[in-house]
Amino acid sequence: MKISPSIISSDLLELGRQVDLCTSSGAYSLHLDVMDGHFVPNLTMGFDMIRSIRSRTKLPLEAHLMIERPDIYYARFIESGANLILVHVEAPVRLASLQNDIISHGGKFGIVVNPETPLEYAYPFLERCAVLLIMSVHPGFSGQKFITSALEKVSEARHYIDSKRLETLIEIDGGINDRTGQLAVDAGADILVSASYIFSGDIEERIARLSSLVHGNGQT
Ligand code: DX5
Ligand code: ZN
Questions:
Q1: Which of the listed residues 3, 142, 191, 197 should we mutate to test ligand 1's pocket, taking the one with most ligand atoms within 8 A of CB?
Q2: So which residues are the catalytic ones?
Q3: Measuring from atom 1 of ligand 1, which residue has the nearest CA?
Q4: In the sheet that 30-35 helps form, which strands lie side by side, from edge to edge?
Q5: How far is CA 187 from the centre of its chain?
Q6: Which candidate among 44, 69, 75, 122 keeps its CA 20 to 30 Å from the CA of 201?
Q7: What's the alpha-carbon Rg for the chain, to the nearest Å?
Q8: What pTM, to 2 d.p., does this model score?
Q9: Domains of the chain with CATH codes
């Protein structure tokens, strides 16, 4: 499994060393939760933090933009070192032109769907979309309980993406631990985002445990 640790739950005073541990543990990418206090009721990191993380690791960086105006800020996230820009389908912007702008600026485009949002809203953008991120919590905070209905969305997305022969990877974000991660893998997810599970224990061991999940192991 591909694992993308979300540094929102890292020890910020130990961030450099914890980024090193994610890198040496074979994480697929680092997940950066950017919140603006408007789109979600919380505030997190900005460009300077992303630049510092960029200088510390060669891992791909994915910026999960939980902000009102990704159309205004996307370029600065790319320039700060983010490789993949994850934009919410619920953001009040023209998504088709933002998708073009991100790609022509040299970034990869990803689309995010909240728990209450129908998956079909993302379908028109999947053709040139590196990642479809399915939220399994309401965005804003780490440490929330996994919303089980997200699993049906993952299976539906797997079916749709395979039937259209698209290359979009399916990622899931929120409440992922070794148990819910197994359910997500069985439903067809390609990438697991995890924050509190990874950073509340032995980081290397938890990344290894999530990485070792394989399709079918959760079935009896
Ligand atoms: C929620 C964020 C998630 C979250 C994950 O708004 O997008 O990345 O912090 O945290 P855990 O894994 O603790 O649910
Ligand atoms: Zn996230």
A1: 142
A2: 33, 173
A3: 139
A4: 2-5, 191-194, 169-173, 131-135, 108-113, 84-88, 61-66, 30-35
A5: 17
A6: 44
A7: 16
A8: 0.97
A9: 2-211 (3.20.20.70)
d(CA 64, ligand 2 centre) in Å: 5
Q: Which of 211, 210, 192, 208 is nearest to 21 (CA)?
A: 208
At 97-144, the pLDDT tens digits run 999 999 999 999 999 999 999 999 999 999 999 999 999 999 999 999
The single-letter code of the amino acid at 188 is G
What are the tokens at 137?
């919590």
pLDDT tens digits, residue range 136-174? 999 999 999 999 999 999 999 999 999 999 999 999 999
Pocket of ligand 1 (CB under 6 A): 6, 8-9, 31, 33, 64, 137, 139-140, 142-144, 173-176, 193-197
Angle at 27 between CA 24 and CA 32, to 5 degrees: 115
CA of 43 to the centre of ligand 1 (A): 13
